[in-house]
Amino acid sequence: MYMVKKKINVFISSSMKDESSRELRLTMKFFFERSLPLYNCCIIEDCASPDKIKKTCENYVRDADIIVMILKKEYRPGVHDEFLAAKRFSKRIFAFIHNGEKEEDLMNFIEEIQENVRSANFSDIYDLIDKIEGSLLENLVSVYKLNLEVETIEKIR
Predict the structure, then answer these.
(1) What is the pLDDT of residues 89-105, one digit of tens each?
(2) Among residues 46, 82, 44, 47, which one has the least CA distance to residue 66?
């Protein structure tokens, strides 16, 4: 049996203003743990630390391989900070945008990030899970193919 030596670290960033966002993050963490064994998922609730939350989240972003932003209705400046940190650390960023109404600040943020992220819209938790799973598997295949191409070129040299 093949053992995974290193899991792909994923940090999930979302609003913290309401209980439904917390439930969404916890559901996504459970989904990753049960359904995607190649991935290690971190959410804000994992960030218990004596350090300031902003610095702790930035460290999680730095250590992550992939950033997943779930954008529903509310704008959270922390998500913006995490996005900027992800860009600074050259992370792969995925944004999943709920089809419902959004605050104006969130609409502006979505417009700002469109050039720097892979994004998809979702309607409910089931649709979100499908979109995340499909996007991450597609990303895994493209990274794997790229690594194979690099290895092949190096062998030719």
Answers:
(1) 999 999 999 999 999 99
(2) 82
Let me know if residue 2 belongs to a domain. no
Query: What is the full DSSP assignment across 72-125?
Result: -S---HHHHHHHHHHHHTT-EEEEEEESS---HHHHHHHHHHTTTSEEEEESSH
Total count of domains within the chain: 1
Tokens 């792909």 — which residue? 8
Sign of CA dihedral 98, 81, 9, 49: negative
Nearest alpha-carbon partner for 123 in 84, 156, 87, 97: 97
Has residue 54 been placed in a domain? yes
- CATH classification of the domain holding 60: 3.40.50.450
Kindly report the pTM of this predicted structure. 0.81
Range of the domain at 37: 8-156
| Residue 65 DSSP class | S
Model pLDDT for residues 69-80, shown as the tens digit of each residue:
999 999 989 899
1 lies in some domain? no
- The answer to whether residues 48 and 41 touch, using CB atoms and an 8 Å cutoff, is no
User: CA 123, CA 128: separation in Å to the nearest integer?
Assistant: 7
